[in-house]
Amino acid sequence: MKKKPIIIGIESSCDDTGVSIIQNRNVLSNIIIHQNIHKKYGGVVPELASRLHDKNIVKAVQEAILTAKINPYQIDAVSFTLGPGLIGSLLVGASFAKSFSMGLGIPLLTVNHIQAHILVHFIKNANINNSYPTFPFLGLVISGGHTQIIKVSDFFQMKLLGSTLDNSIGEILDKIAIILGFYYPGGPMIEYYSKNGNEKKFTFSKPTVNGLDFSFSGFKSNVLQFIKNKLKDNTFFIKQNISDICASIEKTIAEILLEKVQKAVLKTGIYTIVLAGGVSANHKIRKTFMSFGTKDNRYKIFIPKKEYTTDNGAMIAITGLMKYKRNLFDSIHVTPYAKFKMF
Ligand code: AMP
Ligand code: MG
Predict the structure, then answer these.
(1) pLDDT grade, residue 178 (50/70/90)?
(2) Which string of DSSP letters, residue by residue, matches 103-165?
(3) Which of 26, 92, 117, 180 has the lowest tally of Cβ within 10 angstroms?
(4) Closest Cα to residue 217, out of 227, 225, 209, 207?
(5) Would the pLDDT of 1 be above 80?
(6) Which residues are CB-neighbours of 230 under 8 A, at least 6 positions away?
(7) What's the order of all strands across the beta sheet hosting 157-163?
(8) Is residue 173 within 8 Å of residue 187, measured between CB atoms?
(9) Considering only CA atoms, which residue is closest to atom 22 of ligand 1?
């Protein structure tokens, strides 16, 4: 096995085509082609997503190779997202990766998307801490598809401790955002408008779910009902209060997450917390966790740099690299899966 293997990572589980080339833990290129078409539909349209992956994947791979300044024959293995995700989107990445592996005669490495969100922290300088988390730690995955607390004992030893019983946190933000008049994806828009808002102006209900599971549908209904009632008296309510509404939503969500993580810490005795997934780009959530970690020095909080929060090829490549180092290669006959599976 080469000392500094070069791995290509292909991510196509949702609406972003991500292709990255890494050498050891260094990112040589990380190309993401976004699909803006979904904006007008208020969410990802699976059929359109898979067609656009098909259109974009060759371009993304070519750009990744050019940016990395390597020759394709230098690539030692190809890793790709096998699941969970939208099946049509996954099939595009899988078919491409299989052909690429056969064409170059290099091994294939399949990657679980959620695991990859967490392992992105093992890329050199991928987090704002500029250091690697040490095992064991608690992974908090907050994304468009998932909201989970995972106990991570090693790269491939992970245990699901809690998960959302209904919608994911990203889904909720995106749905609330539509009501507020924003387009998809709504999370970044809520963050944008929350600036200078008074986060204490409005109070929203927090879910009471036992154990380490989450639930966000009650919170969503509470926000929507509140806005509906206010609009009855004042049709300009949203416009006049947008910053305070967004700030109050963010504050509630950050508190829900932190309270649940504190519960997980009490249960496991693990004080190292690793944030991952698109929603971890949110400044209020980042600030809440960081200032909590500063107050209690038993805690170590790891926060990904923004480019490594949402779906990207680098997280697939680093997870592939860890499998490559352990000779965990996969057969060309593997097939993608849509639903979450434990790793
Ligand atoms: P992922 O599924 O990991 O690609 O994450 C996508 C989700 O992250 C979407 O629901 C976005 O609305 C959400 N998101 C992205 N950036 C932010 C942000 N700055 N604040 C809140 N949510 C965000
Ligand atoms: Mg994701």
Answers:
(1) very high
(2) HHT--EEEEEHHHHHHHGGGSTT-BTT-SPPPSSEEEEEESSS-EEEEEEEETTEEEEEEEBS
(3) 26
(4) 207
(5) no
(6) 237, 241
(7) 157-163, 147-154, 137-142, 272-276, 300-302
(8) yes
(9) 187
88 CB near ligand 1 (under 6 Å)? no
Atom of ligand 1 nearest to the CA of 309: 3
> Among residues 12, 237, 5, which one has the least CA distance to residue 106?
5
Is the beta carbon of 144 within 6 A of some atom in ligand 1?
yes
Measured by CA distance, the residue closest to atom 16 of ligand 1 is 188
Q: Using the 8-state DSSP alphabet, how is residue 36 labeled? A: G
Same fold, 6-121+309-325 and 131-304: yes
Q: Provide the residue ranges of all domains of the chain, joining segments of one domain with +.
A: 6-121+309-325, 131-304
Percent of the chain residues topping a pLDDT of 70: 100
Q: What is the CATH number of domain 6-121+309-325?
A: 3.30.420.40
CA dist list (Å): 314 to 70, 193, 253:
16, 30, 28
- Planar angle of CA 278, 131, 273, nearest 5 degrees: 55
Residue with tokens 């400044």: 283
Give the residue, by CA position, lying nearest to ligand 1 atom 11: 187
Segment 129-150, tens digit of pLDDT: 999 999 999 999 999 999 999 9
How far away, in angstroms, is 185 Cα from ligand 1 center? 7
Average pLDDT of the residues in 226-242: 97
Task: Provide CB contacts within 8 A for 162, sequence distance 6+.
Answer: 148, 149, 211, 212, 213, 214, 260, 264
Please state, in angstroms and rounded to a whole number, the distance separating the CA atoms of residues 45 and 254: 28
Neighbours of 174 (CB within 10 A): 23
**Does residue 50 carry a pLDDT above 80?**
yes
CATH architecture of 131-304: 2-Layer Sandwich (3.30)
Per DSSP (E only), the strands in the chain are 6-11, 17-23, 26-33, 77-83, 108-112, 137-142, 147-154, 157-163, 272-276, 300-302
Is the pLDDT at 31 greater than 80, yes or no?
yes
